[in-house]
Amino acid sequence: MSNYKIAVLPGDGIGPDVVKEAVQLLEEIGNQYNHQFEFVYGKIGGVAVDEAGTPLPEKTVEICKESDAVLLGAVGGPKWDNESPELKPETGLLGIRKALQLYANLRPVTLFSSLIHSSPLKREVVLDTDILIVRELTGGIYFGSPRERRVGEKGVEVIDTLFYTEAEMERIIRKGFELAQTRKRKLTSVDKANVLESSRLWREVANRVSCDYPDVALTHMLVDNAAMQLIRNPRQFDVIVTENMFGDILSDEASMLTGSLGMLPSASLGVEGPGLYEPIHGSAPDIAGKDVANPLATILSAALLLRHSLGLSEEAYAVEKAVEQALEQGFRTHDIGGEWERVLSTTQMGEVVRGNL
Ligand code: ATP
Ligand code: MG
Fold first, then answer.
1. Is the CB of 349 under 6 A from ligand 1?
2. HEC per residue, 254-286
3. Where is substrate annotated to bind (predicted)?
4. N or C end of the chain, less CB within 10 A?
5. pLDDT 10s digits, 235-269
6. pTM
7. Residue 273 — φ and ψ, nearest 5°?
8. Angle formed by the axes of helices 346-356 and 313-328, to 10°?
9. Given this model, what pLDDT does residue 340 score?
10. Cα dihedral value 80, 85, 91, 95, nearest 10
């Protein structure tokens, strides 16, 4: 029997609704595969502002650092829209990412064939799409300094700086290669090397690192072309690795290929220490507490947690299969259901997936 400690941060809005189902699913995995999961709850986001006067209490950071992995719901909502920047729920999320030094953001984009009608793309284009986007999370233009706004001779002038070290590039590119080795062994490195100095270094580093992974086929692609190819022929991609801003944009674009926000999980990994797992959707305050939210993105995030932080790939696969099966059986929540007759509540969907394990 192995023991694992998991920090659970439900957060705001539908966060608690969907996290509850993922936790129960992990408990069921524990029963079936003989693992002991200890869940330790922490506050983050708006609930933490209300109860502790800060979106990221020190206690929460402690809980996370002492755990093998962190499962997070969502943060934010209209109630806290007018808070000052340091009291914004989202500040809590940025804070925990920073505290855990999470540098690699993984976003799998998998089209479940029974949901193919929700994709905006034609069936023959999008069928079997299964992409993993690996985005650098700690560097690039979002964090560069100097940043400046001043008034010059011709009016306002602004500066943002794109800064990366070679070491930051190397660790994320290596992560891309390692992940490609566990999949179809195809890595697309996305940059803008025809224009940017940072991208030229990125390409050099990718070529150098590729010597250590001779079993992975590396392709370079310019970001504008990549944006186009994701729509033209998404199936050509296996793993995509790219810097922070390109990854931000491409992963949102790619997420829409599957047509369903409520289905997509994410993982953020650090050098060592716990990874953080969360659905890509937000707190959806309009449907919070109504037992209608789709829990599958969070359940699939729990699968990523099993795979990437606990090394339990068989268990992760079992969860993904149980989700796929629920969809094949015709079960839907309202967001993916449309006019469907078998629309389930959050709780019911969680039960169905557990039953399929
Ligand atoms: P954020 O700024 O936190 O990303 P947002 O307002 O951009 O939040 P979401 O909170 O992700 O976006 O939700 C947008 C809409 O999508 C919601 O109002 C909700 O109707 C729907 N939605 C999001 N997640 C789910 C889910 N898990 N199940 C069902 N519907 C969802
Ligand atoms: Mg949003």
1. no
2. HHHHHCCHHHCEEEEEECCCCEEEEECCCCCHH
3. 97, 107, 135, 224
4. N
5. 999 999 999 999 999 999 999 998 888 899 999 99
6. 0.94
7. 80, 180
8. 120
9. 67
10. -150
